[in-house]
């Protein structure tokens, strides 16, 4: 795609990337089920929570890729190998930012929290080790340009080049997204339905 490139995020670019991420997740099935966006400043505090989590992921050595179109951040993908942040660095990053997101606790749809968390659990065994596709997002004004496809192809390339990795796992609470991922080779391994929400747990096995 003309004018497009994919590069790794760092602590200087992750804030803008998180803005793109939040834009897509405001209407995502799980997020909208858990959080009440009719309450004041829910979006602001959720952004702070997303940003803190992204910074922790970077510090742990997880890969976050940004898609850029003519220098502007247009998409983001978070790929995890479940690395841990050293405790000393963890505390340094969390404080004082943790206090900035405490008001988010008042933005939950509390009747939905337990069903939502239960939907994240699945019983089917996945061959380890695997990567987790935590999130992929493309800014609204850049959709329809093939950026999502490029980002997904990027992580699949990473997974398939690693001789240890067996595949990529993800979950989604949107049936439309489930169908999109199926087109990229993901298979439904378990459908977890709780009161008011259904989570689709999916796995794309490496072609080895």
Please describe what this structure looks like.
There is one protein chain. The protein is an alpha+beta fold. The chain has a single domain, classed as Aminopeptidase (3-Layer(aba) Sandwich). 39% of the residues lie in helices and 25% in strands. The protein is built from 8 helices and 7 strands; from the N terminus they run E-H-H-H-E-E-H-H-H-E-H-E-H-E-E. The chain has helices spanning 14-25, 29-34, 42-59, 87-94, 97-100, 110-119, 147-161, 175-182, and strands at 4-8, 63-69, 72-80, 131-138, 167-172, 187-194, 197-205. Strands 1-2-3-4-5-7-6 form a 7-stranded mixed sheet, with helices on both faces. Strand 4, helix 7 (147-161) and strand 5 (167-172) form a beta-alpha-beta unit. Helix 1 packs across helix 3 (42-59). The longest helix is centred in the first third of the chain and has 18 residues, at 42-59. It is globular and about 45 Å long. The relative contact order is 0.17.
Task: Give the low-confidence spans.
Answer: none
- Global outline: globular
What is the terminal separation in angstroms? 28 Å
Main sheet? 7 strands, mixed
Number-wise, the strands total: 7
């Amino acid at each position: 795609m003309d004018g497009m490139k994919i590069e790794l995020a760092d602590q200087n670019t992750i804030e803008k990337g998180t803005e793109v991420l939040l834009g897509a997740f405001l209407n995502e099935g799980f997020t909208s089920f858990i959080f009440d966006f009719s309450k004041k400043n829910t979006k602001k505090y959720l952004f702070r929570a997303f940003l803190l989590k992204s910074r922790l992921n970077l510090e742990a050595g997880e890969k976050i890729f940004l898609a850029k179109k003519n220098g502007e951040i247009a998409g983001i993908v978070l790929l995890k190998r479940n690395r841990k942040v050293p405790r000393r660095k963890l505390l340094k990053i969390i404080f004082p930012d943790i206090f900035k997101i405490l008001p988010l606790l008042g933005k939950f749809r509390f009747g939905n929290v337990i069903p939502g968390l239960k939907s994240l659990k699945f019983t089917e065994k996945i061959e380890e080790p695997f990567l987790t596709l935590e999130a992929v997002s493309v800014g609204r004004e850049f959709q329809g340009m093939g950026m999502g496809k490029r980002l997904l192809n990027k992580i699949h390339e990473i997974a398939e080049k690693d001789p240890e990795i067996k595949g990529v796992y993800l979950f989604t609470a949107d049936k439309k997204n489930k169908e999109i991922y199926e087109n990229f080779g993901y298979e439904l391994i378990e459908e977890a339905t709780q009161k008011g929400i259904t989570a689709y747990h999916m796995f794309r096995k490496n072609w080895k």
